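Hi all, a correction to my earlier message: I attached the wrong file for NAD-dependent epimerase/dehydratase domain-containing protein. Here's the right sequence:
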Amino acid sequence: MAGENERVCVTGAGGFAASWIVKLLLSNNYIVHGTIRQPGDSKYDHLDKLEKASENLKLFKADLLDYESLCLAISGCTGVFHVASPVPFPTTITDPEVQLLEPAVKGTLNVLKACLEAKVKRVVVVSSIAAVVMNPNWPKDQVKDESCWSDPEYVRSTKTWYYLSKTQAEAAALEFGRSNGLEVVTVCPSLILGPLLQSTMNTSSWLLPMCFKDGFEKISFKYWTLVDARDLAEALLLVYKKSEAGERYICTAHAIGLEEVVDKYLKISHPNYNYSQKLTHTEEEEEKLSSEKLERLGWSYRPLGETLIDSIESYRKIGVLD
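and the right structure:
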């Protein structure tokens, strides 16, 4: 059976996307070490309820900046899925170096050094399209693929610190793998939506509730490139098993304007909401990205309507949407 008794570690196991990879790994008979920051906190209760968690999931208190804690969690594992990364709301960033850049870059290198010490065979690092899209020199009408990288100096000049943290961390991870003979594969997901396994919200999950609560016209970006967290989990396991070392994969499923999201999906599922008519996006907002490389490996994704409906239903269940 797939993954029978193979031991792997997932960093940031209690997070939105990481919880789905933990669930998928357990269902594929992997033994999973999950790192969390505050053992005993009720926000991790959902992990204990996952199928096969009682026998095959072990949680470790760890922090990305605490190397020894990572070594304990990774010891005995043949594979690692490095998902943990700080994603604060932009308005809460007062010191980007401390809040974002150091945890992302140093934290990633700490994970990789611990992997090297534990003789881990392969590491899958979850990056972001934030490390892909901010490149002013890329030809305007050319679809962005894995050869496109965000330009660190340009990103720094725009003060989009999350984008800088993901760009620097991913570049450092691939370089570390090359220099030290460690198999590192990176995956760059777009905006991650989908139902929640946990009872708390993460940054990307607030997008739809904020649309309904504050008004869709208040959302600053009206063109979305997105992927379902469940499909991302499948992509991570796929590249873990099938990719060549040192590869990079964009993981995105749908690119759609907000007006189309409303007209094609939300007006049908939620017809009584008073939607604004001012939802058109500009051509500059459109992001042309390709997941063709990942699809050639065998990846597929679910319809957008399923992601939206399941997401909204899960927000209702935890009380953030009436």
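Sorry for the mix-up. The chain has one domain: 7-192+227-252+288-301.
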